[in-house]
Description:
Layout: H1 25-36, E1 40-46, E2 49-54
Antiparallel strand pairs: 1-2
Amino acid sequence: MCLGAAAKGEDQAVPFDASAVADTFPKLLMRNARIYGARPSMRHKDLGVWQTWTWARR
């Protein structure tokens, strides 16, 4: 039975490559946060008051 890199204790995280295509939803979110930073990503009216979330907000 071969367990690969996990058995050796190696890190399974894939480094973020800025040149990679945003072909998955998480990559698209990261790309938008990097490009649009302080711009609004979503607005929602709650009890008559507009709530705004930016791309950079975590």
